[in-house]
Amino acid sequence: MNxxxxxxxxxxxAEDLGTIHLIGVGGVGMSGLARLFLTRGIAVSGSELxxxxxxxxxxxxxxxxxxxxxxxxxxGVDTVVYSSAIPQDHLEMAEARRRGLRVLHRxxxxxxxxxxxxxxxxxxxxxxxxxxxxxxxxxQRAGADPSFVIGGEISxxxxxxxxxxxxxxxxxxxxxxRSFLIYRPYVSIITNVEADHLNTYGDLANLEATFAExxxxxxxxxxxxxxxxxxxxxxxxxxxxAEGRRVHTYGEAADADLRLTEVSSSARGVRYLAQIDGRSxxxxxxxxxxxxxGLNSASAVLATYLLDLPLEAAEAALAAFPGVRxxxxxxxxxxxxxxxxxxxxxxxxxxxxxxxxxxxxxxxRLIVVFQPYRLYRTRDNQTEIAExxxxxxxxxxxxVFGPGELRAPGEGSAAxxxxxxxxAERKVFxxxxxxxxxxxxxxxxxxxxxxxxxxxxxxxxxxxxxDALSARTADPSAPAGTLPGSDAGxxxxxxxxxxxxxxxxxxxxxxxxx
Length: 514
Fold this sequence. Notes:
514 residues; alpha/beta; ten-stranded mixed β-sheet; six-stranded mixed β-sheet; 16 helices; globular; disordered C terminus
């Protein structure tokens, strides 16, 4: 993607866009943008191929949703918005250009909404969604009423976007396609920098250079926050400081500007003490476990301090932080088996999530149902992904989710299952969607923890697992793994589609974050 051709933040306002149409409006990124415009009073329509859960909320806000892609969907439209998942020859894209309509990438439309606000942009390889959510809740608690667009939904708020009346606009800045270079932040938070999206960047050096380019877009009157515990974040801070830029760091490292001490994590949550320049900022607690969650929250504490907002707001907001959907999300309990859902698909975030879930499991076992996301990532990080999966006691592996990618024989999950350093009886590759709940109910025992993890479609598995485990309880004489009303043998294979999910362009789901 050549972002130099795009319109940067500050050039247009949301109102300049007129009536807006979003292609593939149901995915998290596009539906959040649609919600933002609708709550701002702007007319919005969108097109989709399936009934995503977000669509009902958009209709309730006054949005017009077309359940097909048609040229007539653009009648009365001024601006058409597309994501990186939409090909340039898409029917509605071609029609928009034929009619001479304004055509914007999602990032350009979002940048227009930021105009006139102080943007707090959160970037990084891991933790963007969680950190953006934490910063948003802190600003809300401080009474700042920020606008926000997040790549996931805050569990308590139930929405990934909102138009606020305050001066701040909090946004999750996606580096996957370089589109974060469209933004002009007042505050830039970079949680970490690790090798990912190398299909875009080629190598880590180019990725790090692009993060530095993003940081240099920060307003001179604002500031940059990075993590001193992350090697990539530390290199970035050193580079930017050498250029005379205002950079502040956080972490457990002795030289971090905001330093965390006495960090502890358990199934009940995480707590730590924070200090800056040798001065205590007090104790901070979160009700969600994981040292990495504490580290993410520290960036929000540091931003609160530097924006001269009351630290009591950060303390209260973090203590009430409910988590983010698909980030360590508890789905329920059935037959004394606890089921979670977790978005992690990069080996570092997988390792952190599984280590935390092992704390939750206690004396029980940990079973992971994993769907890799993108062939190139699975291939390039196969050893690291396999080692992360081995933290679990049992692994049920689905085929790679890679819409538009061609898988050669032996590629993908067939190779990954062999690389996982677990005994053969403790790992299994299933080539059908319905076979995964069968394997889980066969393997899970009371007291175990099961997590669905990886590519976006895997989030649909949790409820099926709970149903299957409940059926096992209701009819103990039934064969282990029997699904109510289903034949485990006749399932849909998945490589780009899952049962009930349209595989055509514009379904708006996975590609928004891949």
